[in-house]
Design a protein that fits this description.
Blueprint lengths: L1 H13 L4 H23 L6 H29 L2 H12 L3 H16 L1
Amino acid sequence: MAIAALVLGIVALLLFWTVFGGIVLGLLAVVLGIVGARKARGGRAPHGKMSIVGAVLGAVGLIASAVILAIGASILGSDEFKNFDECVQHAETQSERDACANDFNKDVSD
């Protein structure tokens, strides 16, 4: 369990920007790390520190993924994005779409 937690924690940390990588693998790493550490503490399994490291890496990946998800949800729910989406839907040419993008960038910067 310690090796699985460590591998899943590393992968979760590397893929935190994806929902599957950060949340699912991070959660699995945390669970396996906790179970492995508890077994190691009871003397039934080796590599207790490896389990803890896997759980910590999984937790960091999980938290980073949750932060990215929250930021993305707040951007998609913002009034600026809704205005941008409406502008792009009504734009007929590429230059009009570019103007929408410029307006969106200006709104976000302000």
